[in-house]
Design goal:
By secondary structure, this protein is of the alpha+beta class. The chain is built from 1 helix and 5 strands; from the N terminus they run βββαββ. Helix content is 19%, strand content 36%. Strands 2-3-1-5-4 form a 5-stranded mixed beta sheet, covered by helices on one side.
Length: 75
């Protein structure tokens, strides 16, 4: 499953807001340095879909706030 996310780093708290079936707005507390924000986004998305963090991959947008993620769901 592919999802689109828009990430806001250095927010006051970690928040996931679902804006549609495949669109999310995610705020993370960590800064966008040394892939810290990307790793936190992967953790939050994994928790939202109840899968392991390793099953969430960033397909595009490694250095941009707009990202496309792949989530391997367990059926």
């Amino acid at each position: 499953m592919y999802i689109r996310v828009f990430v806001t780093p250095k927010a006051k708290r970690d928040v996931i807001i679902r804006e549609g079936s495949e669109n999310f707005s995610i705020s993370v507390r960590v800064p966008a340095e040394r892939t810290m924000a990307n790793e936190r986004v992967r953790e939050l998305v994994a928790g939202e879909f109840k899968v392991a963090k390793e099953k969430v991959r960033i397909i595009s947008g490694h250095h941009r706030p707009g990202k496309i993620l792949s989530v391997e769901l367990d059926y």
